[in-house]
Structures are given as C-alpha cells and as structure tokens.
Design a protein that fits this description.
heterodimer; A: 224 residues; mainly alpha; Cytochrome Bc1 Complex, Chain D, domain 2; two-stranded antiparallel ribbon; 10 helices; B: 217 residues
Chain lengths: 224, 217
C-alpha cells in the first residue's frame, strides 16, 4: 500500500476522534448560548405564555395591565374589612367573615410568615432577620455606608407599639406597608395576609405567656 | 494501449474498507445520539442576565425562601419571575447606589419590566405544571439543582421527555414532605427511609401519569 494512503487513512481516523472529544468537553458545560435546534417541530408557536415578550406593545408585555381607571368584574373590593382591615372607620378587631380562626389558619400563617416576613423580622418576630442584620452591617461599615445603604431596623413585633395594634391594623401594614416597609399586597394573596396577621397575634401572645396560658394536659411535656 | 489493472495492494484495502463500512455508521449514530441529545444541547444553558442577580447571595446567604420571589409557584403552572417592585422591597434602601442595580432602578422609575432571559424553556407543545409538583412533595432541587448555590442560574437537567418520564415512572425516591420543598440542602434519601417516602406517596395519592395527554394537551 502506498505510504500516502496509509498516512491519510490514519490521519482521517485521528481526525474522527476530534468531534467526540469536543462533544464530551462541551457536554453539560455551562454556556451562554441555547442548544442548536435542528428541527423546530412546533417548539415555538404563535401564542404568548405567561410573562412572555410581545413586541406589538410599547412596553413589551404580553400580559396586559388593566386600563387605568377600570375595575375588573368581581374585583371591586368594596368589603373594607376583608381588603383593608377597617370596619366603620376603625381598625378591625376580628377576622373577616371569609376567614375562621383554626389551627390550620395559624399554621398557614406561620408558614407564610416564615417565607415573607422572617427575612427582616426574624422567625420569632424580634426584628433580627438575616436581611436586617446584613443591612445594618452595610450601614455601619467603617468607610461609610456601602453604596448609599440606609436602613431602619425592622421593628420587633413584640414592641409595645405593635402589640397594642388590632388585627386589622396588622393586616393593613402587611397589605400597604408602613413608612420604610414595603407593602406585600401584590405578593401575598388576601387570605394568606389574614393568616399571617392572625399568626402575628399568636406570636405576640406566645412571647409573654404565663403558665396559665398553657392547657394543663400540655404542661408536663414542656417541663412546667 | 495497455489495459488498466488495479495494483496488487488494493487487496489489502478490502479489510480496511470492511472495517470502515462497519465503523462509520456506528460512528454517525454515536455522534447523533450523544451530540444531539438534550443532555448535550440543552443542559448547561446559562444566559447572561440584564442584572447580575445572584441566587447564591439572596437564597443561599440571606436564606430568602424561593416563594418570597417566585410567589406563584404553588398556585399556578407558572413560577413567576418577580416584578421589579419585589426587588425594591429591599433595594430602595439596601445598596441603592450600586451600579449593578442601576437597571433595576431605571425599571422601577420607568415602569418598563426588566427583560430576564428564560433559562428553562419547554417546547410550546409540552405542558408543564409547577403547582402539581411542588404541592405533591417534589422539590425545586429535583428539576433545577442547587439554585441556592448558583451565582448565575444554569440549566442542570435536560428537561427532555425521557427525563420527565423517568421520574413519573418511579417518583418514590424524589418525594419529600411539602414543608421541605424549598429547603434545597435537605436530602430525602439520607433523612428518610424508603418506607417513609412511600408513606408520602400514599398521603398525597401520588400516581404520576404516563398518558400522552398529560403533557401534550
């Protein structure tokens, strides 16, 4: 066999090893480009899914915002007790008719409190959450606050000014925020906000509870 | 004119050609199966986002729960990416002058959304539902990996049909109590016995479907 053919065949065989090696290297490795789509099938259809971009509108949103000054049917929110925590111009002192006090409601409130509030207020509501600690550290940086950070300590929910508040006022604070705290009305559905308000009340009660508050049959388990 | 005769060494090419004839198709099959598989093409997608938002910092170090931002994940098929307002719950105050946050600030002022690039994307003909999974004890970590350790979100699973079915056929080892779905560091295989996981499957009545119409509707 002439040398030329032997050489070219072996070079070909060696070259054939390159694509698998390149593939093996790239496989699963992070890259900023999408995989090549060879056959598109119906991958991209002329419909818009949630939060997709729609170039037809100036703001690029496919999810349209309601026209200013309009209210969707069934969304008029005239029940001020349920939506604002206000009854006859006063803070509501009871749960609205849509919610009933139960262990389930408090457990729901606890889970939601731990998701949305504990970051700043801490799991026990003492105002020592991770974000609060981090923000205070940024403010008290030796070279001055980092990137202009300002921070008002997330108030302890056991502060005397908070413990006296009726449940409706707590609900209103969660919904619309207060001073330096943003409102959570868009992030948390209304029934969960009531559950959180009820849980905050329970949490406050738990902090300066007396032995008499614990049902007798439970006391032994707590060493009381 | 003398007739053309193949030289004698051609004979020695015959085994070479036979081997090549057998190897080349195998080679082509391998390249297609290995190289075009979603594990090669789809995994590892890590687009450059308009804001260098770090899950490692927010979800990892600060311990924010996934649902603080992806608040619809338990209620809807879609896990909403948070609006600018959610960032501004904290960033009206925290590091408000940082150049990294400039796009967030201008989005807040103009009302134009931040155009996050979608990392996990199924073809439009496939139907997926977050609420069906996270309310039945399937944690984010099974499908998105350790997001709480990622500075940049990366697609770590192929999200192919074969991958979906692998779990739908035998989900027991991937189930955990619903209260733990966003605790990504928690591992059901070391913290629970198989019997306990089977108990969870019974508790939530889990019978994942393999019918085509479940995901193609």
């Amino acid at each position: 066999m002439p040398r030329l053919i032997v050489y070219s065949l072996s070079i070909l065989a060696l070259l054939a090893l390159v694509p698998p090696m390149v593939l093996a290297r790239n496989r699963g490795e992070a890259s900023a480009t999408t995989g090549v789509h060879i056959i598109f099938d119906m991958d991209l259809q002329t419909k818009f899914k949630t939060q997709a971009v729609n170039p037809l509108f100036a703001d690029g949103r496919s999810m349209r915002q309601p026209v200013a000054g309009t209210v969707a049917r069934g969304d008029e929110r005239l029940d001020t007790h349920y939506y604002n925590g206000v009854v006859a111009g006063q803070w509501a002192t009871t749960l609205p008719a849509q919610a009933t006090m139960s262990l389930k409601l408090l457990e729901r409130g606890q889970a939601r409190f731990n998701i949305y509030c504990s970051a700043c207020h801490g799991y026990a509501g003492a105002g020592d959450g991770m974000v609060n600690q981090r923000a205070l550290a940024l403010v008290s940086n030796a070279q001055g606050p980092v990137d202009g950070t300002v921070w008002v300590t997330a108030k302890s929910l056991h502060d005397a000014t908070v413990t006296v508040q009726p449940i409706g006022q707590l609900f209103n604070t969660i919904t619309y925020g207060i001073r330096n705290m943003a409102g959570y009305g868009t992030q948390i559905p209304v029934e969960d906000r009531w559950a959180i308000a009820a849980y905050v009340k329970a949490l406050q009660r738990s902090q300066d509870a007396a032995v008499q508050d614990v049902p007798p049959q439970m006391r032994a388990g707590l060493g009381l | 004119m003398s007739r053309f005769l193949f030289p004698r060494w051609i004979d020695s090419l015959v085994p070479v050609l036979a081997i090549a004839g057998a190897v080349v198709p195998l080679y082509a099959v391998f390249i297609v199966a290995y190289g075009f598989s979603p594990k090669s093409l789809e995994k590892g997608y890590q687009p450059i986002q308009p804001v260098p938002f770090s899950h490692a910092r927010h979800a990892g170090e600060l311990g924010l729960d996934c649902r603080y931002c992806h608040s619809t994940v338990e209620r809807s098929w879609f896990a909403a990416v948070p609006s600018t307002q959610v960032c501004m719950n904290c960033h009206t105050q925290i590091r408000k002058g940082s150049p990294l946050l400039a796009p967030v600030k201008s989005s807040y002022e103009s009302g134009m959304p931040i155009e996050w690039i979608k990392v996990h994307k199924l073809p439009d003909y496939a139907y997926f539902d977050h609420s069906a999974h996270v309310n039945r004890g399937v944690s984010c970590v099974e499908c998105h990996g350790r997001v709480d350790q990622m500075a940049v979100v990366t697609r770590v699973k192929p999200l192919s049909m074969g991958w979906c079915l692998e779990c739908h056929r035998d989900p027991i080892d991937r189930l955990r109590p619903v209260s733990k779905i966003t605790t990504l560091s928690w591992d059901q295989n070391t913290q629970m016995t198989r019997e306990e996981r089977e108990g969870i499957a019974r508790l939530y009545h889990i019978t994942p479907s393999e019918n085509c119409s479940t995901c193609h509707r």
